[in-house]
Amino acid sequence: MAVQGQGVIAWQASVPVAPELLEIDEPGPHEVLVRIEASGVCHTDLHIQKGYIGELPLLLGHEGAGVVEAVGPGVTQPRVGDYVILAWRAPCGACRFCRIGQLHYCAASLNGQPRQHTPDGRYPPPIMGLGTFATHTVVHAAQAIPVPREIPPAQACLIACGVMTGVGAVLYTAQVRPGSTVAVFGAGAVGTSVIQGARLAHAAKIIAVDIEPRKLEWAQRFGATHTVNATDGDPVEQIRALTDGYGVNYAFECVGHPQVLQQVLAARDLAGVAVLIGVPPAGSVLPLDLQWLFSRGGALKPSWYGDCLPTRDFPMLVDWYLKGELLLDELVTRRIGLGDVQAAFDAMERGETLRSVVVFDR
């Protein structure tokens, strides 16, 4: 029997969104029905709503935590009643990357079929196979990762994307070493999660770079040892002044802008690692002096989802939160209802929030 609910769908680029009625079909083979308890409002959702990435229509939302209410044929895990965080990567175990042990590059990540539809029978695909700006969603069972109930939904949902992406980019993509120096360009939710990852990796110096004083103040709460306001002069020169003229061992781009990536590359020490996390808009181009790039050495690495494995890493991050080592309460700037998603997008563009979180009070 179909479940009656609501969801937020982007039908056309840059058109304001609002909740609308949805019917959610029963889960099919290897799928589970999840009642969403909380969903973070991420920049990726905003970019999709504006038409910068992806094709519309889409059911928005991809940072979700909730409870499994029904399972389809063939599902043994998770079980009905399990409290889960939803992952947009669920390695298939059989593709060319999974076969050689690179599950974080899986080319055939498991997803459920679109089960949410409008009363007139339209099935907008859920973003990243999740669609968590909704009262309910249906996902592949492998996308629903059971976690302890002790972590509240508003905090748990943030692990699903932004926090995992930032922390994973440090631990897995860059493999930051203890005692090293780090610069993080962009101190939003992902950037502050990179800062937390660098703190957990025991970096000696963590430099936050942004143009908003409020975000730089937030960055210090999460572990930044130094801050650089890019409006006060060349951020690369400011970073060099903080690192004895050398630059940093690791630099992270959390904005998705070619000019910022140029600064990230220039802020590295010799053999430094640059990590691209921010999603660039379509058509973005990076002019690059290849001789200069060769002479600097090191690496430029895009980071997809922090190169994580959700089944391994979600429970680990929950454990760190419960021990007080990973700060999540401080990331929740606003708790909102499903009808406030567009207002949350607007606040995000104004730089007023780290994360607004849609909370479904029942």
Please provide a written account of the structure.
By secondary structure, the chain is α/β, with parallel strands linked by helices. It is 27% helix and 26% strand. The strands form three sheets. Strands 3, 5, 6, 8, 9, 16 and 17 form a seven-stranded mixed sheet that branches. It has a six-stranded parallel sheet with strand order 12-11-10-13-14-15, with helices on both faces. Helix 2 crosses helix 3 and helix 2 crosses helix 8 (310-322). It is globular and about 65 Å long. The two termini are 21 Å apart.
Task: Produce a short descriptive summary.
It is built from 9 helices and 17 strands.
Number of structurally distinct domains: 2
Structural class: alpha/beta
Shape category: globular
Query: In DSSP terms, counting alpha (H) and pi (I) runs of 4 or more, how many helices?
Result: 9
Gap between N and C termini, in Å? Answer: 21 Å
Strand residue content: 25-35%
Please provide the count of β strands: 17
Residue windows where pLDDT falls under 50 for at least 5 positions: none
Instruction: Kindly provide the name of the CATH class of the largest domain.
Output: Alpha Beta
Give a short account of the largest sheet.
Answer: 7 strands, mixed
CATH topology of the largest domain: Quinone Oxidoreductase, Chain A, domain 1
Please, what is the average pLDDT?
96
As a whole number of angstroms, the C-alpha radius of gyration is 20 Å
Output the helix-strand order.
EEEHEEEEEEHEHEHEHEHEHEHEHE
CATH superfamily descriptor of the largest domain:
Medium-chain alcohol dehydrogenases, catalytic domain
CATH architecture verdict of the largest domain: Alpha-Beta Complex
Helix content: 25-40%
